[in-house]
Structure formats: C-alpha cells, structure tokens
Amino acid sequence: MTPEADFPAETDTTKPRPGLYVLPNLFTTGTLFAGFYAIVAAIDGTFSRAGVAIFVAMIFDGLDGRVARWTNTQSTFGKEYDSLSDMVAFGLAPAIVAYQWDFARIAQVVPTLPFHFPWSRVAWLATFFYAVGAALRLARFNAKAAGADKRYFEGLPSPSAAAAMAGLIWLAYDLEWTDLTSLIVSMIASIVLGGLMVSRFSYWSGKTVNLRGRVPWAYAILVPLLYIAVSAGPITLLALFGAYALSAPLYWCFRRVRRRHHRDGHPVS
Questions:
Q1: How far apart are CA 90 and CA 166, in angstroms?
Q2: Contact (CB, 8 A) for 127 and 102
Q3: I need a labelling partner for 75 at 20 to 30 A (CA). Which of 118, 158, 178, 266 fits?
Q4: CATH code for the structural domain at 16-207+214-263
Q5: Contact at 8 Å (CB) between 71 and 16?
C-alpha cells in the first residue's frame, strides 16, 4: 500500500460535498424571486410591497456570495446566475416599479395640464435608461472583477441604486404623493441613478472590513444603523441609500474645489 493510499480522505477535505453547491444558489434564487415579486406587486399597484421586496432581494444578494465563500463553493455557474438575478432584482424590477408609479401618475395628472406633452414616452425612456445603466454596470463589474480594487466600486452598485429608487417610490406611495412633482422627481431619479451606475465615481465597498479582527468604530456603527433604517421604513432607507449614492459625486466635487484652491494659491486646511 502506497503512502498516498493511506490517506485517501486528504483530497476530500479540501473539496466541498456536491450538495453544498446548491446552498448559495438558493439564496441567489431568493434574490430572483424577490425581484420578480416586486414587479408583480408594482403591476398590482401595491408599491409598498414592491419596495419591501427589493430590500429583501438585497439581503439575499448580500448572503449568497458570503455563503459561497464560507462553504468554499464558488463557481462560474454561481457567478453567472448571480449576475442574471441581480439584473432582474436591481435592474428590471426598480425600473418597472418606477414606470408603473409614473404611469399611474400620468393617468391622473396629464388631463389637468393646460398643454400636451408626451409624459408616458418620457417616463418609459427614463426608466429604460435606468435599466440600461444597471445592465452596463453589471457587465462592467463582471469584466473587471479580477483586477479591480476591492476597496472601491467603480460606479454606483446596482443594489444601492435599486434601494434608493425603491425607497423613493415606497415613500411617495405611503405619503400619497400623486401630483406632477412626484412624476418629475421619479423620472429624474431614474436618469440620475442610471447615470451614476455607469459613471466612474469611486464608491466605498466595505469589503476591506475584517469582521473577524478588530473593526474600527466607524465601521461598527453601520450594523445598528442598518437595523434602525430597516425598522424606520422608507424615509430612513431613502436617506441612507440616497446619501450613499450622492457621496461619491459630492466627494469628487469637494476634491476639485480643493485642488483649485491649492492651484490658485489659497490652500485649504
């Protein structure tokens, strides 16, 4: 008997059991299901449920990758399945939710306007722009994943964009905000969020936080903050993810102003 035959289980311990590969894909399926349900809820006119479903999709999306790493079951299939599910949950679902909300507003508002304007055409173009932005963002992420800086995302992540959009529509629905202003705001939000997803702004990823080691207090407060945000409802969720969406362009503007002051001989402390 050879020494290799004395330890046949050595290779088995480094390779997970085949059944474990199903586990992260179940979470990915949860992301897909929540995104699909958000579309159905928006078509039925229950926009609060649509908003909740998108946030549930974010939870599943945050778990599938971590479960795959914990169980050592990362695979090319899982990566592609995750990307397709993200496109439904964070690309198509928020776009359709926003369009259904805009379409409902158009039916009520446009007849009262003193002029005719193709609001319905603008609404579906704005929400389609959001969907295109999400698709391009996911494609770029997959293409550059190997050599990307893990500390930052290039462009606004599609789950964060979806959360900001869902929070806006959910809040408008709860407040019964049904005038022309809500129509314009939601269309502008679709265009801005779609543009931020394909932008080159750097967003903090949080992937460098080591939860097993010593976590700085600034990172540690994110956990209770997220719990408070989910408990508080759409206002806090919109504020949280809206602030994250605007953080990168605002920081970019701040750096440009700072460099201009230095160039003009007026250093900024």
A1: 10
A2: yes
A3: 158
A4: 1.20.120.1760
A5: yes
